[in-house]
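An example makes the point: we let one protein speak, the chain in one-letter code, the fold tokenised, and here it is:
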Amino acid sequence: MKRLLIVDDEQIVREGLKAILSNNFPELEIKEAKNGKVALEMAELFMPDLVLMDIKMPKMSGLEAIRLMNEKNPHIKFIMITAYAEFEYAKSAIMLGVKDYLLKPSKATEVVQTVSRVISQINEEKLSRKENLFQQNTLQKALTIVETDVVTQLLFDHVHEIHLDELVELLDTPMTSEKFVMSILLPQDSESLYAEIKQKVRKIGSTWVGALYGRQIPMIVFRQPGQSFRSQAITLARSILSVSSTHDRAGWFIGIGNICDSLDKIRQSYQESLITTKDISLPVKYRFYADMPLADTKIAGYNSRVLESKFFDQIRNGQWREIIIEAAELIGFFENKGVSLIETQQRILELLWIASRVLNEMGVETDTPLYSIQIKDFRQLRTETNHLMNQMWQSYIEYYNEIEDDTIQRIKQYIVEHSHEEISLDGIAHKFELSPIYISKLFKEQLGVNYITFLTECRLKRARKLMMIPEKSLKEITFDVGYQDPNYFSKVFKKMYGASPTEYRRSLIGTKG
């Protein structure tokens, strides 16, 4: 989304321009400033792509505001707003790099044509910069690493707001308001197909592919305008399944979660996609969560989907005592409601299955939960359920007991030493023979930050040290600390420290002198 700032001391001018632009460019995010000084302050946070700037204003002239804005962000484009008598000022402004000007009063068609012309220039320059960057193989590798890490953090943790906007822009995926998750389940020993699947998905586009966890690949899919949700999901599912044309499809399955309207809610869609893979024996090798059969009976006071979502989080957080207590209470609830023993057993088994899948994605190997004997009454069901859950709990404890106490410190040190390299959460997981999800969990629990935040802090700390070396250009520093895009580095640095790399370096030199 492009950002546009209107700067004029006349409110009626600002409102008129905003009305014209909003009607003709609905994709623009538009803000207003009543003078140059206010505009400078707003530009720090708003970071506009285009500014419509009046020349004569109180407190600070438009020319001075342009000069100062240009120093901080040379990529901003400017259109001057001027009266006919001020034309000489407009010529001076163009010398400062202003792309065009509008005479007061301007017709709506003139405003639209001028803004459209400059937006086209912005798009062309942006495209040119991206094409130059993508010529570097290292950038493509970096984007792949960013993509898998972002998927992992969004589905299993949280990406801090400092990074999400910039990461989304860097990945260059057409962002739409609606998105959903697909979970691909591969047959045993089919991990080698991961690269081929990723290549298939890239050709279709609008999708972020996560790392391979065991046999599972999660994907965040952005809705395509002009195509129905089902049509888009089925097309993508069939394309992925075509990889198996020369392989046995017996172990293949794709679960498709419901649509959500923000990345904050994407975990719900992921959980839904995972639940749909419970029965992979179906002849059609993909399934929508919305098509999951509802239970024959509706039970007052019971919402399976809310409980499933809660169960996911409890397993990941290791809240086993609470899980076991709630499972026993749930069995008692069903018994009191008059639910049959067979239906109760089926519902409890579904929750146990969720527990085993979540454990598997965390790196804990467990068998598919099944009752070893025929259940004859509710008391026996409680006993056997408690036994199965304690087995899972024990597997969870044994897995984490094998991990040395200093594991997080060793991982932390590894990131500090290798932050300037092409480093990823998935790569770290392979090195330390752990699940990426578990490493993400360790960071949050023991360090109080997520992996991406910690990696960013390491890189920017190294960048600040390198800024003390006058011979090093900011572009060189960008690549030396592990980034492949100077613009992305600049944005992250400014959000973290409140000053651009240029401003920060200038302050260092001033302090040193």
User: Anything to note?
Assistant: Residues 407-512 form a domain with the Arc Repressor Mutant, subunit A fold (CATH 1.10.10.60). The chain is about 55% helix and 10% strand. Confidence is low (pLDDT under 50) at residues 135-139. Strands lie at 3-7, 29-33, 50-54, 77-82, 100-103, 179-185, 207-209, 216-222, 253-256, 286-288.
